[in-house]
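Handoff note, outgoing to incoming analyst
You'll be picking up this chain. Sequence as last confirmed:
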Amino acid sequence: EAAKYRTSPGCTLRGAINVPKVGGSLSVTISSRAWRLAASMFQQEIMASQFDPMKRGQKPMHSLPNCTHHIHSITFGEPFPPSTDPLSETTHTIDNESGVALHNIAIRLVPTMYKRPWGRAKATYQSSVVSHIVQPQTLAQQRSTSLPGVSLSYDFTPLAVHHHERRENIFIFLGSLVSIVGGVFVTVGLVSGFVLGGVSAAVS
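Most recent structure output, in case you need it:
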């Protein structure tokens, strides 16, 4: 089943968008005309299924593009190395009979000031993601204005995080190193003394 979607025709979207620091959304959907035709058939199916349950879940006669999609990467701001991108390299397969559904993705962005040792501070964002699938029958029954496809919404939290990485002072490192080396010499001396004492006692 997965191989069928990999070999089907598709398209790749790539780019960057400058947005203000307020919540917003981005959608990639099928055309409104195609969905209007399909939605009317879904509504007829829902009405027919009320009288004949065997007709429930039948594929609409109108051909629709499959909404299966793969997200390579969606990032906001500079990369934040201590964290991973929850949307990176994720595949969402729409495996119902019609091949369409609405994939809602909600992203919560946390403004983060990130500073590494001996580097300048960078303003970036950490993110948490919640997503769910809305089936086409639900969209048609509720007469929703949303179209099948991918709908990504994002919002900013009122709180910010300051992440500073620090390294210990070089003198602390040297002191620890000297302590370790001294401990090794003391241990070797004690073991050597114990061995030599045992050998001397055995010889005498």
